[in-house]
Design goal:
- The structure is a homodimer of 237-residue chains.
- Chain A has 11 helices and no strands.
- Chain A is an all-alpha fold and 237 residues long.
- Chain A is elongated, with a radius of gyration of 21 Å.
- The N and C termini of chain A lie far apart (64 Å).
- Chains A and B meet through helix 6, helix 9, helix 10 and helix 11 of A and helix 6, helix 9, helix 10 and helix 11 of B.
- Chain A binds a DNA duplex (30 and 30 nucleotides) through residues 1, 4-5, 7-8, 12, 15, 36-39, 46-50, 52-53, 57-58.
Chain lengths: 237, 237
DNA sequence: CTCCGGTTCAGAGCGCTGCTCTCTGCGCGT
DNA sequence: ACGCGCAGAGAGCAGCGCTCTGAACCGGAG
């Protein structure tokens, strides 16, 4: 009976996959606002009401796509970082950052889905949390490795993390940063924010008439600056 | 005839204002996706088709609201900065940054409109450019004043701006930064990006389970760090 | 004062959307 | 072999953006 049940479940899972695939295509073509359950159903040759057997509402479909998008950018970061030698911490950092930007430029609508304004009445289900953390895990691991190798030397002359950050830092330390200091953790969050801030600004047109000639270089400069601040010093140096 | 024409135009302008006001309220209540021309018309006691005499499409109404939002955050920044003594450059910077965050937290949907994913098929009319520049003008002026007062000392030990940034920097220098160096201009853009990146992350829930206890302090830390990097050193020092 | 051009509004209507409900039929497990 | 459950079909509801047509109005010209 297990096999038969899996048979039913399998065709169901396949159909869910097809729906998501078509939806992802429509999303990529005309954005979240243009995603229509009826259009997806039409393209799949079924009637609109049938879709509701698989996704109880349009928002649920969008949520599934959000999770997939988080997962995709996380995978892109992981892959780019894994291609670097483990002891080249700066290279790993730069590769991770560039992977975020590259993925975002290739999938602007999906990026907008996860780092833009929440589409409908905003729900933000908890399910996204795990998928959303993948990039952060990678970046934290780079810092950790550099620290363990004794190659993490945070830039002096900057203000310390506020005292009120201690409790948050403690939670993050247990989950990700092991034995990094509050200051470094705060800088890591700021770096993470900067990276996505740049990509969002670039994608949403805020750099029009501001940065025009070489945005890739400007992005690299931001990523490199953040690396310096955190202490991922250039090479052996 | 001038008077009569103005009479007609006046009632027209008034009605446009009323429409925008109701639309802004609906926007604030349920976000851009929930903004409905029919609902606005209903609330104003007119039929939906009449709205089209004033705004040729829903997107045009949204565009008007976008410009208003840019203007509002620009005004908030200007006001906060103007309240500081002119020679307290760091205070002026911090006040400007805090004004952005405060306004965004008070008007999340309007903020999402200007710093979130572009709503429909994305058009981004040029009209928004001038309104969007107001905050940048303020921040650039602070840097300029500090530089003229000889109180701008950029943090050493960070990578220089890429060579390809020179042409963009030149354009920005002529428009805003007068005689600041390419490096400082690049850092100013990065600071600007960081500020909005933080606010966006906070608003869109990226800091859930990450920064929970005191986000205001964390934001201040980001703003202060950026000030240090640019060279708006703390007080006389 | 009358008439005329232009602006504004009312209303109907088109095609689309998300979503619900009912009904039929096929496939699976017993 | 039979009955149950799930997938799909189809109609329908309310809402949306947007268009078109006709009626009311209002200020200036003859």
């Amino acid at each position: 009976m297990n096999a038969s049940r899996t048979a039913r479940e399998r065709v169901r899972a396949e159909l869910i996959g097809e729906i998501k695939q078509v939806a992802r295509r429509q999303l990529a073509e005309q954005g979240a606002a243009g995603l229509s359950l009826r259009a997806v159903a039409r393209e799949l040759g079924m009637v609109s009401s049938a879709i509701y057997r698989y996704f109880p509402s349009r928002d649920d479909l969008l949520t599934a796509l959000i999770i997939e998008a988080f997962d995709a950018v996380g995978a892109a970061v992981e892959e780019a970082e894994a291609a670097c030698p483990r002891d080249r911490h700066l290279d790993r950092w730069m590769a991770s950052c560039r992977a975020v930007r590259t993925w975002a430029l290739a999938h602007p609508h999906e990026y907008a889905l996860i780092h833009g304004s929440p589409v409908p009445g905003y729900v933000a289900p908890e399910d996204t949390a795990v998928a959303a953390a993948r990039d952060g895990i990678v970046m934290a691991r780079i810092l950790r490795d550099a620290h363990e190798a004794g190659e993490l030397s945070p830039l002096p002359g900057l203000p310390p993390a506020p005292a009120s950050f201690a409790s948050d830092a403690q939670g993050l330390r247990e989950a990700l940063f092991v034995d990094l200091s509050d200051d470094v953790i705060a800088r890591a969050l700021a770096a993470w924010t900067s990276i996505y801030g740049f990509v969002s600004f670039e994608l949403y047109g805020m750099y029009r008439n501001v940065i025009e000639t070489d945005r890739a270089a400007a992005f690299d400069h931001t990523a490199l600056t953040q690396a310096h601040i955190m202490g991922l010093a250039p090479a052996p140096r």
